[in-house]
Automatic annotation (TrEMBL):
Residues 4-98, 157-248 form the HTH hxlR-type domain. This is DNA-binding HxlR family transcriptional regulator. SUPFAM superfamilies: Winged helix' DNA-binding domain (SSF46785). It comes from the Bacteria. Keywords: DNA-binding, Transcription, Transcription regulation. Gene3D superfamilies: Winged helix-like DNA-binding domain superfamily/Winged helix DNA-binding domain. The lineage of its organism: Bacteria, Bacillati, Actinomycetota, Actinomycetes, Mycobacteriales. It comes from Mycolicibacterium fluoranthenivorans. GO terms for molecular function: DNA binding. Pfam families: HxlR (PF01638). PROSITE patterns: HTH_HXLR (PS51118).
Length: 287
């Protein structure tokens, strides 16, 4: 019998980060939380869920245990561009959650991150990116080994709800990536992804309901809100291929067509243009 293909960096990332509590714990750790009690006080999380996530994040190398402290490893700290992109997207496109404004200490202004090319500095959109499968790339290898586990309502954070409709479900993430590279018909999504028709139909309906996709003439297309998800997808991919790489090479190869180089994502301040750093981004100071 032929063995199943090895899961690539994308599939490993979805299995690890397709969980809102994991991302929120990483966020609080970046903001300085290290003790169990600090995480419990800052997040509306049950003791069972917190204990489980701290253990899994430690075993997966995102956190390192030192006595009573849980401290981010290098890979954990490197999640900040993805978390900043989620924060900016939810603040702009899900205003009912009233997330605080972002502040850049470099220029002292309220800001939003701008996805740019490290090589040429130009602002980047899906129109200036060319995506192709790399040596370890295929839809089959980009799926987690198990489906995203179902969680009860009481075990959900609900703080990044619309982001988690994408990151928290393997088929949603795959649909969004496929949509960015031009897939639009149900039959094409089904053929490319190998998704069960029922699961695919369900995820498309949810993405349309959240105004990430729109459907006309039998085709599904990205809305403006959907296109704005690109920084989340790219920073998630960038993190995965840096920290979860497989020996046979990258899953996806991105080229910035404006300058013709391999695309390396950088987030810049939309006010001053300076490259953002994890410690230079925070909540707008009171007063």
């Amino acid at each position: 019998m032929e063995s199943s293909p090895t899961v690539n960096a994308v599939g490993r990332m979805l299995g690890l980060l397709g969980d809102e509590w994991t991302l929120l714990i990483a966020q609080q750790a970046l903001l300085g939380a290290t003790r169990y009690g600090e995480f419990a006080a800052r997040l509306p999380i049950s003791n069972a869920a917190l204990t489980s996530r701290l253990a899994s994040m430690t075993s997966e190398g995102l956190l390192a245990r030192a006595g009573r402290d849980y401290r981010l490893t290098s890979s954990g700290r490197s999640l900040w561009p993805m978390l900043v992109s989620i924060w900016a997207w939810e603040r702009r496109w899900v205003p009912e959650h009233a997330l605080p404004a972002m502040w850049h200490s470099g220029c002292g202004a309220q800001c939003a991150p701008s996805l740019t090319c490290a090589a040429c500095g130009a602002t980047t959109t899906e129109k200036t990116l060319d995506a192709r499968w790399g040596p370890s790339g295929s839809w089959a290898r980009s799926m987690p080994t198990v489906a995203t586990r179902r969680r009860s309502q009481g075990d959900r954070a609900g703080l990044f709800p619309q982001t988690m409709t994408i990151l928290g479900n393997r088929w949603s993430f795959a649909v969004m990536v496929a949509a960015f590279v031009g897939t639009s018909r149900f039959t094409d999504f089904a053929a490319q992804l190998g998704a069960p028709p029922g699961s695919l139909s369900d995820r498309l309906q949810i993405l349309v309901a959240n105004d990430v996709l729109t459907t006309t003439d039998g085709r599904y297309r990205l809305t403006e809100k959907g296109r704005a998800v690109l920084p989340i997808l790219v920073t998630a991919l960038d993190w995965a291929q840096r920290w979860l790489a497989t020996p046979d090479g990258p899953a996806v190869e991105l080229t910035h067509t404006t300058c013709g180089t391999a695309f390396d994502a950088v987030l810049a301040c939309d006010q001053c243009g300076e490259v953002l750093r994890g410690r230079s981004v925070g909540v707008v100071p009171a007063g």
